[in-house]
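Module 6 notes. Inverse folding takes a fixed backbone as the condition and produces residue identities as the prediction. Think of it as a translation problem where the source language is geometry and the target language is the twenty amino acids. Below is one complete input and output pair. Work through it position by position during the lab.
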């Protein structure tokens, strides 16, 4: 096998360079002289994650497709700590990315099974209060382009950046309770009635009809006893201004057939 470098990282003070090689070795080099100082042995598959500690120049983290996460002392060339990402009933999970917290006391990794792994000091009770499955309901919503080549959300016909903050759902699209919906930036101070998503039925590519979150539940402004959402009002105003600009552009543009790209709009 011809050796190839898959990843490279400097330590915190730039005195050392660590390279990950496709023969599963990590090599520590003197950044000034280019001298090879250490071979770090431990990984059994290719490594694509090398992260230096935010302030301790001795510490380097590595993680790879073998599910192993190592904490190294690059000055001594020794292994300080080792974790193995074993998933019950599924074998190990390849680690795709990892980052230290700013204080260097924690680090978080993501794996090939969609898990977020958080390592650090103390107990895990604060994290156990959070649901195991957390997705935004807009994560897999289809997009289209209009005649001006602008991107729109297919279901709401709105520009994605003008849409309300998304809802938190599980892997099946079922919305979480309102106490979790307030974790989404923009929903911290919403009333309970604004945190209840509107559900609809959508046909999948296999012809199966599933229940999914469609979007922000809007409140009729004429309905007594309920106040309209301030966020909805802002979005309506922005949409109205955009429609007025679009109408002015169309009046000044020559008439002719419009060509629509992408998926046709849904009624």
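Target side of the pair, the amino acids:
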């Amino acid at each position: 096998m011809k050796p190839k470098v898959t990843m490279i990282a400097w330590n915190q003070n730039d005195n050392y360079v660590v390279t990950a090689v496709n023969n599963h070795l990590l090599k520590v080099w003197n950044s000034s002289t280019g001298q090879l100082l250490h071979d770090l042995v431990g990984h059994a598959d290719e490594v694509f994650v090398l992260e230096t500690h935010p302030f301790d120049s001795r510490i380097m983290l590595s993680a790879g497709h073998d599910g192993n996460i190592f904490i190294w002392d690059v000055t001594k060339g020794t292994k300080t700590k080792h974790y193995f990402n074993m998933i019950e009933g599924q074998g190990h999970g390849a680690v795709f990315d990892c980052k230290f917290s700013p204080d260097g006391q924690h680090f978080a990794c993501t794996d090939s099974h969609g898990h977020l792994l958080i390592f650090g000091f103390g107990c895990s009770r604060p994290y156990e209060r959070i649901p195991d499955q957390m997705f935004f309901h807009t994560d897999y919503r289809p997009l289209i382009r209009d005649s001006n080549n602008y991107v729109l959300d297919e279901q709401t016909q709105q520009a994605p950046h003008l849409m309300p903050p998304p809802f938190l759902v599980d892997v099946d699209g079922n919305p979480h309770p309102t106490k979790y919906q307030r974790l989404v930036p923009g929903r911290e101070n919403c009333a309970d009635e604004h945190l209840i998503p509107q559900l609809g039925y959508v046909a999948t590519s296999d012809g199966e009809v599933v229940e999914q979150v469609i979007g922000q539940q809007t409140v009729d402004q004429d309905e007594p006893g309920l106040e309209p959402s301030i966020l909805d009002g802002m979005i309506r105003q922005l949409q109205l201004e955009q429609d007025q600009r679009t109408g002015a552009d169309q009046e000044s543009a020559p008439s002719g057939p419009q060509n629509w790209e992408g998926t046709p709009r849904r009624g």
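Reference fact for the lab report: The CA atoms of residues 148 and 190 lie 34 Å apart.
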